[in-house]
Amino acid sequence: MAKKGTGPRSTRQGERTAKSMVDFAEDLGRLLGTAQAKASNWLNQRKDVIDELTQLRDTANRLLRDLTGGESPAGAGTRGRRGRRRAANGTTAAAGSSVAPARPGRRKMSAAARKAVSKRMRKYWAERRKTKTAQA
Question: Alpha-carbon distance 19 to 35, whole Å?
Fold first, then answer.
């Protein structure tokens, strides 16, 4: 009796299997290459969008600076803690610097005014409680 898998038939099957494996590897390589090309294309597009937006921002800042005569507009800086204005370069104004504060100090109520408001509000809330209990 002949050994199994040693005839001409099994050799053809082995060649078919090897050919299908090569075809699979080629397809997989093509698929991975396409995915890599698309990913790098998307990353390049992202970089291009960032560059365009950066140029747009810089142009807008330059135009605002030209319109305001070199001063930064009132809303251009971002407020830091405790109401300090941040300069365009990200530094904050020091206490003794020549940069004027964005607004004057807060107005403060006198003790008499606070007492009057307190009295008025107690009266208001007492009236509200009275009407609420009358309705219920």
Answer: 24
Q: What does the alpha-carbon distance between residue 95 and residue 6 come to, in Å, rounded to a whole number?
A: 94
Q: What is the rounded distance in angstroms from the CA atom of residue 89 to the CA atom of residue 91? A: 6
Residues 103, 99: Cα–Cα separation, whole Å:
12
Q: Which has more confidence, 16 or 26?
A: 26
CA atoms within 13 A on the CB side of 133: 5
Residue 27 confidence (pLDDT) above 60: yes
Question: Which residues make Cβ contacts (< 8 Å) with residue 79, sequence separation at least 6?
Answer: 85, 86, 102
Sign of the Cα pseudo-torsion (84, 86, 87, 89, in order): positive
The position carrying tokens 């093509």 is: 30
Q: Choose among 52, 72, 53, 50: nearest CA to 61.
A: 72
Q: Is residue 95 helix, strand or coil?
A: coil
Helices (H), 1-136: 8-67, 111-135
Q: Of 74, 96, 70, whose CA–CA distance to 85 is shortest?
A: 74
The model carries a pTM of 0.31
